[in-house]
Amino acid sequence: MSQFESHDMPFTCKTLDDFLEEYGEELGREADRAMQPLHIPSRDGVDDLVQLGVSLYPGQKHVVAATVKVLHRQDYVNIVAEQGTGKTFIAAAVAHNHACSFKAQRWHGKNPEEAAVAKGKVGRFFPDYRALVMCPGHLPRKWARFIARILPDAKITVIESYKDVIRLDPTAKPEGPEWFIVGKDRAKLSSGWRGAYNLVRLPDR
User: Fold this and answer.
1) Parallel, antiparallel, or unpaired for β 155-158 and 129-135?
2) Residue 133 three-state SS
3) How far apart are CA 4 and CA 9, in angstroms?
4) For the chain, give me the number of helices (H) and strands (E)?
5) CA 185 to chain centre
6) Which end of the chain is least crowded, N or C, by CB within 10 Å?
7) Which helix (H) or strand (E) holds 60?
8) Can you tell me the mean pLDDT for 78-94?
9) Distance between CA 107 and CA 89 in Å, rounded?
10) CA dist., res. 44 & res. 92, Å (int)
């Protein structure tokens, strides 16, 4: 039990419901003041999103646009939604649009027609980038089929072993969208190193 001063009168708070009933409106105003959203669907449009092979629903488009804005400010973001809301589709669209947005920034001030293509307003535009998907162990093939459906020109590699990684050329630049998909359990297993526990080190002479 706690006491708070409210309107020059002591207020006894016994439960959280009591607290919210008394101070909820004030807390809401403070939250609105302190936490300004980056994207408001009623205010911000989604016309700059690059079209994929499958159309997003209006609500999904706003989630993608908002998430890309967050990634312009920091290196990570969490998308939390119930099953069936299209989190896989949203995540793939975020990765592609995030790459496109950086490409469009590099075209800023150049030929207007080329810049329009870079922004996804004309035709289909595929920047050069690499995306890594780490998903549950039963989903890599499903992810691969999904990416092939929405990005037909993407190069897709499902990583089954560390040998698949060794074969990759770390000096090569991506040519178009390149997607690498690995199961989270597979990512924790196997290694390119061999244990040295059976080797005996002789004393130095």
Assistant:
1) unpaired
2) strand
3) 8
4) 7, 5
5) 20
6) C
7) helix 58-71
8) 93
9) 27
10) 21
Helix (H, G, I), strand (E, B) or coil at 1: coil
Residue closest to 133 by CA, chosen among 158, 109, 100, 114: 158
> Which residues sit opposite 156 in a β-bridge?
179
Taking each helix axis from N to C end, the angle separating 140-150 and 87-106, rounded to the nearest 10 degrees, works out to 50
Q: What's this model's pTM, rounded to 2 decimal places?
A: 0.69
Residue 121 has pLDDT above 70, yes or no: no
In sequence order, what are the residues at sequence separation of 6 or more whose Cβ sits closer than 8 angstroms to the Cβ of residue 49? Answer: 56, 61, 64, 65, 93, 97, 120
3-state secondary structure of 35: coil
* Count of all residues that appear for the chain in the document: 205
Whether 129 and 177 have beta carbons less than 8 Å apart is answered as yes
Spatial neighbors of 60 by CB under 8 A, at least 6 apart, are 85, 86, 89, 90, 93
C-alpha to C-alpha distance for 177 and 126, rounded to whole angstroms: 7
> Shortest CA distance to 92 belongs to which of 125, 38, 120, 50?
50
Residue 135: Cβ within 10 Å count: 16
Residue 126 has pLDDT above 70, yes or no: no
Average confidence score pLDDT of the chain: 81
Please name which of 153, 87, 144, 145 lies closest in space to residue 125, comparing C-alpha atoms: 153
What is the token pair recorded at 117? Answer: 């293509």
The residue type of 155 is K
